[in-house]
Amino acid sequence: MYEHLKIEERGMVAIMTISAPKSLNALNSDILREIGEYLDEFDTQRFRCLIVTGDGEKSFVAGADISEMATLGPQQGEHFGRTGAEVFRQIETLPCPVIAAVNGFALGGGCELAMACDIRLCSDNARFGQPEVGLGIIPGFSGTVRLARLVGMGMAKQLIFTGKNIKADEALRIGLVNAVVPQAELMDKALEIANQICANAPLAVSAAKLCINTCYDMEAEDAIAFENHAFGMCFSTEDQKNGMQAFLTKGKCEFVGK
Ligand code: CO8
To answer: Is residue 132 annotated as part of the catalytic site, yes or no?
Structure first.
């Protein structure tokens, strides 16, 4: 169905593997289009978590495709950047959590893809970096925006201005990833966390994601009001009634997402 995406289903978890082995899974327009199409069709009733990874053991995504960008002019460059930024925003705003299982190089657009996900895990051979200025461009898939928010402005500036890659342990130290695991255990770890998420009330998880994303940039007063409204809405769900009843009767609730 897709030329560059492999899609798997593990219960309530979907796994999207980006596959362009000849270019270490670099993102070209076709791959970005396929990711966008997959997300457009993503069945949020059926899946409660999405894992994003790269094909092979060497690379998650080695950036945007340099061979496609090499001859672009300013307007085409802006269009290409916008296409990637929009697809990554789709990931960020997908109603369910998205876990990046970073299995190797996450450079340029690859690091930016990982940053658009909610949770980042990586293998011990992973490398992160924003090498764009060494190519005469800047991070163009929202990297200047998200990196500073994730690791702070000082570290983001150092990474982007030097273009130097960092190893997995350094990515962990600066808070770019949540955990580093041996490569052979990466997908199991991602699935373990995904399944922990799936066991919870999906509408509540989704509301929590919306609040964290939306409130991050708001004034505290507005943010607190936004969360308060979302909190109230949880009480309109069956899952809230059943989840609390199950607690009070010492039972277990199977959340249905209503
Ligand atoms: N684009 C296109 N092809 C790539 C890319 C890429 N990003 N990365 C690797 N490849 C290709 C190589 O050209 C090579 O192809 P071939 O076999 O035909 O020569 C193949 O993948 C294997 O790569 P290497 O032989 O280089 O493998 P190494 O193990 O020696 O090195 C590296 C691996 C370190 C990952 C190296 O390939 C590398 O440095 N790649 C480029 C990394 C990079 O600079 N990424 C950032 C790109 S810019 C970007 O992402 C901007 C995002 C915002 C765009 C905004 C739009 C305007």
So the answer is: yes
Ligand 1: residue whose CA is nearest its atom 4: 23
- Whether 200 lines ligand 1, by a CB cut-off of 6 Å, is no
Closest by Cα among 22, 76, 14 to 31: 22
pLDDT digits over 75-89, tens only? 999 999 999 999 999
Domain that holds residue 211: 202-248
Domain tally for the chain? 2
pLDDT digits (tens, 9 = 90+) for 91-125: 999 999 999 999 999 999 999 999 999 999 999 99
Answer whether 177's CB lies under 8 Å from 168's CB.
yes
Using the 3D structure, point to which of 198, 222, 240 is the last residue of a domain: 198
Any ligand 1 atom below 6 A from CB of 23: yes
Instruction: Using only the alpha carbons of the chain, give its radius of gyration.
Output: 19
Residue owning the nearest CA to atom 40 of ligand 1: 62
180 and 238 in a single domain? The answer is no
**Residue 102 maps to a domain:** yes
pTM beyond cutoff 0.70: yes
